[in-house]
Queue: 4 jobs
Job 1
Amino acid sequence: EVQLQASGGGLVQPGGSLRLSCAASGFTLDDYVISWFRQAPGKEREGVSCMYRGARWTTYADSVKGRGTISRDNAQNTVYLQINSLEPEDTAVYYCAAKMSGWCTLSRKGYDFWGQGTLVTVSS
């Protein structure tokens, strides 16, 4: 069964850091474009970061540029997103998604698989 499992969310104080994980089963993540998205209450889902196949290229939304790092562990078939200097505006449900074809974009279109989401709350 093809599945993406996102985890690592929680309650974090402003200024803190968090590392989210996206574990894949049923397919090899390194063969796919992997992205992280987030959806804050009352807002549309937005792209946060993307990693191209083979980790050859990455991109970040302006909202996390300089604070976020996307990485991949092929042995674990897992992709990570670390965000530092967290702000209340980072509060959202974070989703990972994978697509076999196409370029690395932060658009929601074209993704074949989605994880179930993990909630990040940034609050004091």
Note: The chain has a mean pLDDT of 95.
Job 2
Amino acid sequence: QVQLVESGGGLVQAGGSLRLSCAASGRTFSSYVMGWFRQAPGKEREFVTSISWSGTTTTYTNSVKGRFTISRDNAKNTVYLQMNSLKPEDTAVYYCAARAAANVQFDYWGQGTQVTVSS
């Protein structure tokens, strides 16, 4: 069982930066693939990025490539999302998620943190 708690959201002007954190409980954190998803008002939740258990493999949706960076610190049971050059269209609730490496679907979800980018 993994419990996830996000933090770091807020209001930022376009072009600014934010860093989200996701603290995970559970001794098996280092074995999980971690991801970030987001859901804008009136839209479906979408995949943003993921990182392998070792941190060596990352995947990004096209709209955030070159602007967002996912990283993890297995010693601290924490995954991060550094967001630079933010745009108003990045406004959404951002969710941290975890899945076992053998699974396709993400099994565990945080409660979400709001990111609002003003123009």
Note: Residues 6 and 22 are 4 Å apart (CA to CA).
Job 3
Amino acid sequence: QLQLVESGGGLVQPGGSLRLSCAASGFSLGYYTIGWFRQAPGKEREGVVCINSGDDTTYYVDSVKGRVTISRDNAKNTVYQEMNSLKPSDTAVYYCAASLAVRSTLVLEQYDNWGQGTQDTVSS
């Protein structure tokens, strides 16, 4: 059974950073494009960043460029997202998702397998 589990969320002050993990079981992450998405209270889920299968090239939405790093550790079957200079507007539940079919896209409907999410709260 394919499963993704996010971890690393928590409470952080504005200007701080968080590193999120997305661990896979039941399949090898290296063959998939892995995307990070977030959903703030009262808002629709939106894409943040993805890392493509094979060459590990990355794609970021403009609102997080320069603040987010995504990386993959195939030995640990885990993808990481680190976000710096956090703002209260970054408060959201963060999800990772996997797709065999896409590259450099953050269209929700094109991702097949989703984790349960981890809460990030940015507040002083």
Note: The chain has a mean pLDDT of 95.
Job 4
Amino acid sequence: VQLQESGPGLVKPSQTLSLTCTVSGGSITTNSYYWSWIRQPPGKGLEWIGSIAYSGSTYYNPSLRSRTSISRDTSNNQFALQLTSVTPEDTAVYYCARGISPGLVAGVLRGQGTQVTVSS
């Protein structure tokens, strides 16, 4: 299984960050897997953003819940992240990942990551 993130590398403050993860070699509806977004701001550790389960149920980090939406497109085997009202503090490398539980940042299969910078 491989995961690949795609989306704009630069977003202006107050706008919405939108990323897509394309999964190959396995289905996002496969039983028992959770598909997540994780980020790492410069000089900081990994932070879990949210997950969408094989069933379509979603789970969010409480600190980001009000600004986050995760959805999926099963016909294209993709899942997506939208983060609204971004600020420079949302600048980070964003990863999509597969795990066996929501909330994990370790022990997951991750994509290579994509840098997103929030700046005017």
Note: The first strand starts at residue 2 and ends at 6.
